[in-house]
Amino acid sequence: MTSAFADTFYFLALLDSQEKRHAQAAEAQPLKPLEPSRQMNKHKLLAVFVGCLMVVIALWTLLKAQRPGGDSVIQALQAGYRRPIGTLSEQEKARTKADEVVRRLGTNALPQYIRWLRAKDSPIKARLLRLLEQQHLIRVDTSKMSADWRRFYAYIAISILGPDARAAIPAISQSVRDRRAEEKGAAALLLAGIGREPIGFLTNALHDPDMQVRVAAARGLGAYGETHANAWGIALPPRSQEEIANTARMVVRPLVNALADTNNNNYFRAVAVSALGQIAHDEESAKSAVPVLLRSLEDPDPDVGVMAAQSLGWIAREPSVAVPALAAQVNAGNATLRRVCVEALGRFGSRAESAVPVLLKALDDADANVQHEAAYALGRVKPKTPPE
């Protein structure tokens, strides 16, 4: 009995011990949420450390990037081109001041602009700059550190210098090949603003393996017929009609040949057709450009057709073939093409008198924009004569 009792007592004691351990374990369970709190503290400390590190790197990069005169140029270009504020007159004053700063430094600052053109942020730096822009604890102007913004300032500054920036042609040409699509186009426009020297490069680039380079080259060649700033703020120098005509003789034939290349996509054709309209204004160039534009007017891609109609209106030559072709599209094209063809007919003035019946019919077009353009075109084609 004593032995049996002892065994029973031992067994009960063992069970009691196990229950106590389970109870202690259960009581300990609510303490587990403390673990994520520790992790959160670690994350906060890590975030603070990374934030401090970014600020240090940003300041170091900013100090390293400075060159004599560079900060003043950036500040002036920021005020005049990147962040225009105030009234139109105030914005114009800011741009005038920016231009004066660039011209005062002249070609002495050109090596710096070329360095900016070649600037490229490493993936780590680009990520840090994005994080700096996203955080709100410390206000940091990343435009002085970002390679993208420095290239933008270089484009503007070089365009202000114009032909004096010839030394930058190799670096700009490299940008046409290496940068993303919108920068390729800006670089090509920049080449057009410097002078005729880059025409050889641009005409060769019409056949580059990279389609985006071809598009940029066509855009740049068309800019030789323009005399105003584009969306990037790139200033194009004033050119006389004689100068544009002389340049067109170098540009139109390569564009026409490129449009005959069936490997080019719709977007290239639309840009190249537009370029012809920008520059082929003299009689000799028009004779080469108009036949191509008439074929493009019936292109399966609607954007190409619209740009061809617009270009025929810009050139406004060869009315014996251009006017009937435009009039035919007023009856057959989509609303956008009809509107642009009507507008183009108006640009021919009295030479488009044979299209008056088409224009009168367009006054009742289903599209209100076509009706408006038709009324305006009729006023240009057959203006009212005062009573005798």
Describe this structure in words.
With 388 residues, the chain is mostly helical. It has helices at 2-28, 34-65, 70-82, 88-105, 110-118, 123-134, 147-161, 169-178, 181-194, 199-205, 211-222, 241-259, 266-279, 283-297, 302-315, 319-332, 335-347, 356-362, 368-381. The chain is elongated and about 75 Å long.
Sketch the topology as an H/E string, one letter per element.
HHHHHHHHHHHHHHHHHHH
Rg for CA atoms: 34 Å
Measured as a percent range, the helix fraction is over 70%
**Contiguous helical run count:** 19
Counting helices, strands and paired strands, the structural category is mainly alpha
Strand content: under 5%
Summarize the biggest pleated sheet: none
Gap between N and C termini: 146 Å
Task: Characterize this entry briefly.
The chain is mainly α and 388 residues long. It has 19 helices and no strands.
List descriptors.
mainly alpha; single chain; 388 residues; disordered N terminus
Please give the structural blueprint.
Elements: H1 2-28, H2 34-65, H3 70-82, H4 88-105, H5 110-118, H6 123-134, H7 147-161, H8 169-178, H9 181-194, H10 199-205, H11 211-222, H12 241-259, H13 266-279, H14 283-297, H15 302-315, H16 319-332, H17 335-347, H18 356-362, H19 368-381
